UniProtKB/TrEMBL annotation:
Protein name: Mobile element protein
Lineage: Bacteria, Bacillati, Cyanobacteriota, Cyanophyceae, Nostocales
Tree of life domain: Bacteria
Keywords tagged on the record: Plasmid
Native source organism of the sequence: Nostoc flagelliforme CCNUN1
């Protein structure tokens, strides 16, 4: 399996998201009153999609990584609370984007399609591991379902 560097991944996802946004959304949404947003909807959706595919423990760490390593790519990167606020407003739009991708991948006629992007913790040992019901039988870790 060939790896892709992070910069290429960011660029590719941004181009795909922005092309979809320009065709499907931009001319169909009304302008809202107030100051024009400094960070585009396409940039925010790109960061969210990239965050879904990479193993960062949380949003704070991911935004810190972007701020520390790719600040010149996202000069108007929002702080975490603003980022969350904008994400909540874009939730429906992001779902439309994902559905559009699914239709391109499998066609409109399919009733179900499952795409898993995050490892799920299957065992989290909180107490002393020597006295666990799972001692010697299981080790903590994650599993990719799919």
């Amino acid at each position: 399996m060939t790896s892709i560097d992070f910069g290429t991944l960011l660029t590719t996802i941004f181009v795909v998201v922005n092309d979809w946004y320009q065709k499907q959304v931009k001319n169909t949404t009304r302008l809202k009153p107030g100051v024009k947003a400094s960070m585009s909807d396409s940039e925010i959706m790109t960061l969210l999609l990239v965050m879904d595919y990479l193993p960062f423990p949380g949003e704070t760490q991911f935004l810190g990584f972007i701020r520390g390593n790719y600040k010149e790519w996202f000069p108007n990167l929002l702080d975490q609370s603003q980022f969350n606020r904008r994400l909540r407003k874009l939730d429906g739009m992001l779902e439309k984007l994902r559905r559009s991708w699914v239709e391109q991948l499998v066609g409109e006629g399919e009733k179900y399609f499952l795409l898993d992007t995050k490892p799920l913790p299957i065992l989290g040992l909180k107490r002393d591991k020597r006295y666990s019901d799972f001692a010697g039988n299981a080790t903590p870790g994650s599993i990719l379902v799919g």
